[in-house]
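ok trying this again, last paste got cut off
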Amino acid sequence: MINIHIAIIDADLIGRKNHRFPNLACMKMSGYLKSKNKNIKLITNYNKLKENQYEKIYMSKVFTDTEVPDWVLNLSNIKYGGTGFFYDKAHPLPQYIEHHKPDYHLYDEWVESKIKDGDKPLNYKYYIDYSIGFTTRGCFRKCEFCVNKNYNKVELHSPIEEFIDQNRKYICLLDDNVLGFNNWNLVLDSLWQTGKRFEYKQGMDIRLMTEEKAKILSSSKYIGDYIFAFDNIADKDLIENKLKLWRKYCSKTTKLYVFCGFDRNDKWDDDFWIQDIKDTFERIKILMKYRCLPYIMRYDKYKESPYYGTYINLARWCNQPNFYKKVSYRRYCEINQERTKNKICSAIIYLKELEDKYPEIAKEYFDMKFEDMLLK
């Protein structure tokens, strides 16, 4: 029996349901420690920390709302970090770990157990089929809500060779703003030379789209949906022009993150909330025109909104393409009511609540349908 000296904890794996993406920092840490002949164990249950004695425990998390018991964080032999703990103040990994090849076998035992229990292998594709890394890091936008707001520019981070596993079919990039890198074309060329299909997981900055970028990106060996971002209604005209350009070259499924619920003026009053909901509907309307899928991303403070139910409805409607592409917002809520017996469902309650108070918003947006909004 191998004596396990080091425990690694992906806190999101334990604290969130249906975790579908590995923690890159954990994999890099494991890769480095294994190169130093350390025995590593991925911990998937905090109770195991009570049963075993480890030389050291390393923990990382990405999401700020992932809960970790206080007694775990107070262990004498634990070291933890990541954006989930410190957000934009998180310390980077030491360079010798940051640039170490990830241990793509860290999650093997856990994945095998989940599949054995009946989960579909497709749910764990990023654990099984993908090499994962950053080709560039940083951004110059300085968005107040963004974890990358302290950066000033986009810089080259890692060559593909640093993190690619030739036995894996695909590549997943986590770059913050690759289209903002001066030599973006060299990055895409290096990806092309691998012969593998790839994707950028974060929303690319469509405001930086050019004819050359559209031609090269649309003709690349891309896998999955092209993902961009539409964070601010103030960019409406610019993004609509860029979507026209993009659709000139690409007819494939394109998704845009639609960030909502964040008050850039820090007022958080009723005027803000209703304007934000209207602006969110307007962005959805624009995306419909260009055959794009919105993915609603809500700033956590939406829970304090008097219209929080509308934010819930919008996310459930838009983030399920089978509904978004086939029925209007109103019809989506009606379908929920039809499935609910003997009571009025929450979706209808939220819809009526907003419609009664702001009929002009309902008239403008509640009945728009994807197939009717497409530009001819």
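PB: full thing came through this time. The two ends are 67 Å apart (CA to CA).
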